[in-house]
Amino acid sequence: MTVAQELDQLLAEALAALAQARSAAELEQLRVRFLGRKSRLAEVMKTLPALPAEERAAVGKRGNQLKAALEARLAAARETLAADTAREPLDVTLPGAAIPQGWLHPVTQTIEAVLSLFIPMGFEVVEGPELELERYNFDALNIPRDHPSRESFDTFFVEASSPEPKKGRLLLRSHTSPVQVRVMERRKPPLRIVVPGVVYRPDPLDPSHSFMFHQVEGLMVDDRTSFADLKGALDLFLKTLFGPRTKTRFRPHFFPFTEPSAEVDIACASCGGRGCPTCGKKGWLEIMGCGMVHPNVFKAVGYDPRAVQGFAFGLGVERIAMLRHGITDIRLFFENDLRFLEQC
Q1: Inter-axis angle of helices 24-35 and 3-20, to 10 degrees?
Q2: Contact predicate 266/257, CB 8 Å
Q3: Best CA proximity match to 176, nearest among 153, 194, 158, 163
Q4: How far apart are CA 197 and CA 126, in angstroms?
Q5: What is the assigned CATH class of domain 106-341?
Q6: How far apart are CA 120 and CA 192, in angstroms?
Q7: What would the pLDDT profile of 258-288 be if each residue is shown by its tens digit?
Q8: What is the dihedral of CA 132, 192, 305, 174, to 10 degrees?
Q9: Rounded to an integer, what distance in angstroms lies between the CA atom of residue 235 and that of residue 266?
Q10: What does the pLDDT look like over 70-106, one tens digit per residue?
Q11: Which of 72, 163, 249, 274 is 20 to 30 A off residue 262, Cα-Cα?
C-alpha cells in the first residue's frame, strides 16, 4: 500500500468513527486518535523525508488536506452535539448541582463558642480599636512606667505622633483590656462585658507563639461582685466548653490591673491529670488569667473603689482552639492551608 492510499484509508476510518460519536468525550478521543502527536497521521507524516522528492510534495499536500478536513468535521460535530443538547427538554425534577460552601475559620469558631457561653450569663459583647493609646493600654490599667511590657521588645509602638499627646504614644494594642477602660469611662456600673479581638506582641514565631493572636477578655462590675462569683463563672464556662468532668484550679499570680490575681488551669484532657508531653508532665494546662479589678483601675476611670468592685479575666483564643482540636502549632491558624482548615 502506498502512502497516499494509507492516507485515504485513514480518512475513511476517521469519517466513519465521527459518524458514530455521540458525546464530547468520544469526540475528544477521536481527535487524539487521528490528529494527536502519536496518531497514525503523525506517524505517516514522519515518513516524508524518506520518500522520493517527486512523491514527497504530493503526499505532504495530501496529509495537510486530510488534517484540515478532519479538524473541520470535528468542529462541525461539536457544534451539532451542542445544539442537540440545548434542544433537550429540561427535567425540573432532577436534583440541582450543589454549590460549594465554605465554613468559619477555627479561630472564629472558637470565638463564637466562647461568646455563646458568656452571653447567657448576661455579658454584652463590645469591641474597640486595634490602634490604641498608651493611656488605655498601660496607664489606666495600673501598669507602671518602668514595667517591661512598655518596652519596644514587648509592644509594637507606631512611629507617628499621637493625636492626643496627654494620652501617650500610639501602639498596636498588646491585649484587649483597653476596651474595658474605654467602656468604664463612658458608662456607669453595673457592667458585664466580653471583649473579643486581635492583639499584637513582638513575640518570636514558633509553635506556641505568634506576633498576632486573638483574645477574649471579660469584665463584671457592680457593688457586690466577689472572687467567689469569678470562680463560679469561670468554672461553669470551662466545664461547658470542655465537658462537665473538666477539673479546674486557681493559682495565685500577679497582674498589675487585678488584685488578688490568679491563673486558671484545667486538668490535661490527654492524660487525665497524670502527666504527659502535652502538659509537660504536670497534669495541668494553663488556660487563662483573672482577678479582682485593682482599685487604681477604678480610680483611673472615675469610679469610687469603695463603692464598686468587680472581676476581670482574659484568655487566648488560639490556645483554646488548639486544645479543642488537638492542634500543636499556632502557625497553622495563619498559613491559610486548606488541607488544615478543612479538618476543623
Answers
A1: 170
A2: no
A3: 194
A4: 10
A5: alpha beta
A6: 11
A7: 999 999 999 887 676 777 776 777 888 889 9
A8: -20
A9: 10
A10: 888 888 888 887 776 666 677 788 888 888 778 889 9
A11: 274
Amino acid at 198: V
Q: Which of 254, 137, 250 is nearest to 199 (CA)?
A: 137
Contact 317, 107 (CB under 8 A): yes
Reference 316, options 176, 207, 118; nearest CA is: 176
As a 3-state breakdown, the chain gives helix, strand, coil percent values, each rounded to 5, of 45, 20, 35
Residue 260, preceding bond cis, omega within 30 degrees?
Answer: yes
- Of all residues in the chain, the percent with pLDDT exceeding 70 is 95
Residue extents of the structural domains in the chain: 3-83, 106-341
The overall pTM is greater than 0.70: no
Spatial distance between the Cα atoms of 240 and 236, rounded to a whole number of angstroms: 6
